[in-house]
Amino acid sequence: MKYLSGKLSTIDTIIFAALILLTLLGVALTNVSPAHAHKYWLAMILFFTIGAIATGWQRAAEKGQKKQLITSQLLHWSSTLVALILVYTFLHTGQIQNETVSLMILLILALSSFLDGFHVGWHFSVLGILLAISVVSISYVEEFMWIIAIIAVILLVASFFWNKYLPPGISFGRNSLKK
Fold first, then answer.
1. CA–CA distance, 107 with 10 (Å, rounded to integer)
2. Pairing relationship of beta strands 171-174 and 3-5 according to DSSP bridges
3. What is the full DSSP assignment across 21-38?
4. What spatial distance separates the first Cα and last Cα of the chain, rounded to whole Å?
5. What does the alpha-carbon distance between residue 44 and residue 65 come to, in Å, rounded to a whole number?
6. Phi and psi dihedrals of 95, rounded to 5?
7. How far, CA to CA in Å, does 167 sit from each of 2, 7, 51, 56, 157?
8. Apex CA 143: angle with CA 139 and CA 144, to 5°?
C-alpha cells in the first residue's frame, strides 16, 4: 500500500457527500449566526476525524497500518482542535471579533482538510478547497451561499465522474501508512 487509490469506494463517496453537505450547513449557519457557528465547527472536527479514519481504514491492510492511521488522524485532528481553542482564546480576551472567529475556524479547517487529503484521500483535499473558497466568498461576496452551493454541486458531480471513469492504475498522494 504505497499510494492511495484515485478511486473512491461507496463508503468514501458517502463520507465525502455527507461532509460536503455538513460543510454547506455550517457555512449557512456561519452566515446566519456566527456565535452559534463556533460550536457547530467544533463538533464538525469529530465528523472530520471519523470520516478520515473510516476512509483510511479501508485502505489499511494490516493491523499495524490501522493503528498508525488512528494515531496519525487523532493527532492531526486534535492539533486542529487545539488551534480552534486558541482562536477562542483570542475571542475571549477581546483580541478578535465574533465574526472573525468563524472565518478563522473555517480557514483552519480548510487547511487541515486539505493537508489530510494527502494521507487519507484526495477528496479531503477537495473538501479543504471548498472550505477555503467559502472563507473567501464569505469575506468578499454578498450572496455567497449560491456560489458555494454551485461549487459544491460541481465538486460532487466531478468527483462522481472522476471516480467512475478514472483508469484503475492512477494514484494520487503519498500514503503515510507505508510499512
1. 28
2. antiparallel
3. HHHHHHHHHHHH-HHHHH
4. 8
5. 25
6. -80, -25
7. 18, 9, 25, 21, 17
8. 55
Bridge partners (DSSP) of residue 171 are 5
Residue 174 pLDDT level (bands cut at 50, 70, 90): very low
CB crowding 18-50: b at 16 or more within 10 Å, else e: ebbebbbebbebbbeebeebbebbeebbebbbe
Alpha-carbon gap, residue 179 to 172, rounded angstroms: 18
Give the three-state DSSP class for 173.
strand
Written as one letter, the residue type at 14 is I
Q: Grid coordinates 478563522 are at which residue?
A: 104
pLDDT band at 24 (very low <50, low <70, confident <90, very high): confident
Question: What is the share, in percent, of the chain residues with pLDDT greater than 90?
Answer: 24
- DSSP track, 108-161: HHHHHHHHHHHHH-HHHHHHHHHHHHHHHHHHH-TTHHHHHHHHHHHHHHHHHH
Contact between 133 and 148 under an 8 Å Cβ cutoff? The reply is yes
Contacts of residue 168, Cβ cutoff 8 Å, sequence gap at least 6: 7
C-alpha distances (whole Å) from 60 to each of 4, 98, 115, 119 are 10, 41, 19, 11
pLDDT at 114: 94
The model's pTM is 0.76
What are the residue boundaries of the structural domains of the chain, listed by start? 3-174
